[in-house]
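During the second half of the funding period, the structural biology subgroup turned its attention to how the target accommodates small molecules. The most pressing case was S-adenosyl-L-homocysteine, which had performed well in the primary screen but for which no bound structure existed. We therefore specified the complex as follows and requested a full 3D prediction, including the ligand pose.
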Amino acid sequence: MWRAIALTLFPEMFPGPLGESLAGKALKEGVWALEAVDIRRFARDRHGTVDDAPFGGGAGMVMKPDVLSDAIAAVSPRSGGPDVPKLLMSPRGAPFSQARARELAKGPGVLLVCGRFEGVDERVIEAHALEEVSVGDFVLSGGEIAAMAVMDSCVRLLPGVMGAARSGDEESFEDGLLEYPHYTRPASWTGPDGIERRVPEILVSGHHGKVAEWRKKRREEITRERRPDLWARRTAKTDEEK
Ligand code: SAH
């Protein structure tokens, strides 16, 4: 069973949205397990202090190294926890990616440390060799939503979770391209702007080869237009292969 452990000051946030739909069904079926560990349990005083003012001054509070370190140690292999990659949710981390999700999904699970306040004491990151991971160039108020995003992207890749839905290899990012546009019935639809829109003729032609060709072309156009960074990486790669 694939195991996700979240270290958090808000354990009641979990499973939250991960208890619904695809991930929720897989959770109930035991395809994966989720444990939310309350960092506050490891506080050393009776007030349950988990943060303190930053050395050097400045705004906000910092998560204390001793408390957080004890929480991490309590779920480590030495304490009977699983031997899994240890991630720290962090806006200055490496951008999380579909490739990393795939790697994590292949392994035994993941440990996700959710920051709060201004973040965590740097020494804990060093001492536990935490891998800093960001879910995007914006700042959340805590790591919980980021951790859920990471978990969700891994869980849907676990064997049996998506069923026969799709192999996944044609999805956005899997081969460096964004997805092609989707259409469903009705074949003709008039929107609130009064304009009738028909689905592209090729899609109702029944010609699988031509459909595949059209989709590939659309994926390339959309990627070039919207994500020149992905497109550049892809063209560099194909040049290399030549
Ligand atoms: N002072 C920090 C922001 C702290 S936000 C800074 O300027 O970079 C509080 C917590 O939210 C962080 O410790 C982290 O765990 C989480 N977080 C915020 N934005 C995130 C992002 N883009 N990706 C992953 N985690 C994030």
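Two results from this model are relevant to the next phase. The first strand starts at residue 2 and ends at 8. The chain has a mean pLDDT of 96.
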